[in-house]
Each structure stands twice: as structure tokens, then as C-alpha cells.
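Re: that chain you flagged

S.,

Sorry for the slow reply, it's been a week of failed gels. I finally had a moment to sit down with the sequence you sent. For the record, here it is as I used it:
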Amino acid sequence: MTFHVLDEVLDLGEYGAALIVPPQEEITALQPGMVLRDARKNHHVLSEIQKEEDYTILCFRDSSPAALGRLMRDLFVDATAFEILEDAP
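Prediction finished late last night. Pasting the C-alpha cells below so you have them in one place:
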């Protein structure tokens, strides 16, 4: 399953990075520990899911905010698309 996030990366300092999922995306199947693949085929382990009003915040303890920021600025891929993988890489 593929879904899209907003193109802003939240820097959580020592806690990693977070991405925001807009309300129109249906991602009820996500659980902490699931692996997501970005447009560059990098894997990110979901550490926490939070809800703020209609938005969903995905937290990644092991992902670099700088690396995700570079991904969001890449004009050659659909950087906001993430795919849910069944297993860890």
C-alpha cells in the first residue's frame, strides 16, 4: 500500500524525525515497528504514531531529519510517497 505525506520534515532532535500524513490519506493499517520504503528505496522503521486533530504524525527514531529533508527536495522522485512493507529489509 502506498500513501503520501506532507513535504515538511519535523526534526525531533535525539528522537529522530517525523512526517505528517494529511487527513485525506487512509493509513489505519500502520503500526509501530512496521517498515516503510521511500521513493529512493530507503527503509524507515516506524517507531510511533500520533494523532493531532485530523493529521497523523509518523515518528522515526532511526531516520535522519537531514536525509528526509534531502528526499523532500529531490525533484526527480515522488518524495512524498511511502510504501508499507510487510517485513523488515
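What I noticed first: The chain has one helix and eight strands.

Talk soon,
D.
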